[in-house]
Amino acid sequence: MSRNREFIGAFAPEFKMFLDEKHACGLKYGEGERLLRKLDEICVAKNRENGLSKELSQRFIEPRPNWSQGTFSHHVNLLSQIAKFLNLHGIVAYMPDTKLKLGIDRAFSPYIFSKDEIKRIFHEADNLYSSRSLIRSHDFYPVIFRLLYSSGLRISEALLLTMDDVNLNDGTIFIKNAKNHKDRLLPLNPQMIPFLAHYAEKYHAAYRDDDYFFSPPNGGHYDKGTVYHKFRHILFKCGISHGGRKNGGPRLHDVRHTFCVHSLRQFIANGVDHRAALPLLSVYMGHSSIAATGKYLKLTAEAYPEISDLMEREFGGLIPVWGASDYETD
């Protein structure tokens, strides 16, 4: 459970004290804890003496495409509470304006990569570095992008995998305390196992169970922002236009959307009944409900016109017109 996980950022002791106080007051504080751990990740490798700066704070509350006002307010309110707590304990912390309102582009919709685009992304990831002098990076990126596409993991879920979470003998990975507070045990795509096995053999000849599977040479785990920027570089090399996070992406999270659409397409093309397909995929993705997975039916029909007639016959009125705010963003 998340309560057993240690905070790892510059303000880990204070974050733990803050959370312990919430629990001591009888509050479960589940969503607050999830956001606090997101803030903690942002503070990894930061200088504690500089306090919780405006730059770090704005990075935490910067609206992602498709955030609702509620989601934005939750981030701002959590930041305000922790800033007050840090200031009381002698640590300078930027105090956000709690009256801030959301101002983001509502025209967002997930970008679904074609199979050809996915192949090109893999090719560029395999050829990022002509020199092998860059330790681990030339092995990390080909593996992480294949894992995201073959499993539909969120990038945070993939980067937080520990050695104990990855069972290559059984061909499974265990995702702990993810979004919606769900644990899930996932079977790996068989084609993914050799990539993970090669990586483990090369970089984890000796390890502890709680070591991160994807760990850079200086320890800890890779930063989501670093992976996203490398992803943008790869998209440029592939000739895939990128408008930025607030202008249609494609974003790294769209690899997860693509996994869902491609999986649904395969289910439907193989004649699998949607009453079986949607619950299976919903559990695998860690969605909050089957309805959340069902929203991808329309995207699947748009991405694969050749099966749209089949989908109309099978699903009929189950394919409504979904708005931008209906899709998860992190």
Task: Describe the secondary structure blueprint for this structure.
Blueprint: H1 12-24, H2 30-42, H3 54-61, H4 69-88, H5 115-126, H6 137-151, H7 155-159, E1 166-167, E2 172-175, E3 184-187, H8 193-203, H9 224-238, H10 254-269, H11 274-285, H12 290-294, H13 296-303, H14 308-315
Antiparallel strand pairs: 1-2, 2-3
Helix pairs in contact: 2-4, 5-6, 5-9, 6-10, 10-11, 10-13
Order of SSEs: HHHHHHHEEEHHHHHHH
Q: Tell me, rounded to a whole number, the average pLDDT.
A: 82
- Percent in strands: under 5%
Helix content: 40-55%
Biggest pleated-sheet summary? 3 strands, antiparallel
The CATH architecture category of the largest domain equals Orthogonal Bundle
Low-confidence runs of at least 5 consecutive residues: 316-326
CATH structural class of the largest domain: Mainly Alpha
Domains counted in the coordinates: how many? 2
Secondary-structure class: mainly alpha
Give me the CATH superfamily of the largest domain.
Intergrase catalytic core
CATH overall fold name of the largest domain: hpI Integrase, Chain A
What would you note in describing this structure?
The protein is mainly alpha-helical and 330 residues long. It has two domains: 2-88; 109-330, Intergrase catalytic core (hpI Integrase, Chain A), CATH 1.10.443.10. The protein is built from 14 helices and three strands. The chain has helices spanning 12-24, 30-42, 54-61, 69-88, 115-126, 137-151, 155-159, 193-203, 224-238, 254-269, 274-285, 290-294, 296-303, 308-315; strands at 166-167, 172-175, 184-187. A three-stranded antiparallel beta sheet has the order 1-2-3, with no helix packed on it. A hairpin with a 4-residue loop joins β1 and β2 (172-175). α5 packs antiparallel against α6 and α10 packs across α13 (296-303). The radius of gyration is 21 Å and the shape is globular. The chain starts with 11 loop residues before the first helix and ends in a 15-residue tail after the last helix.
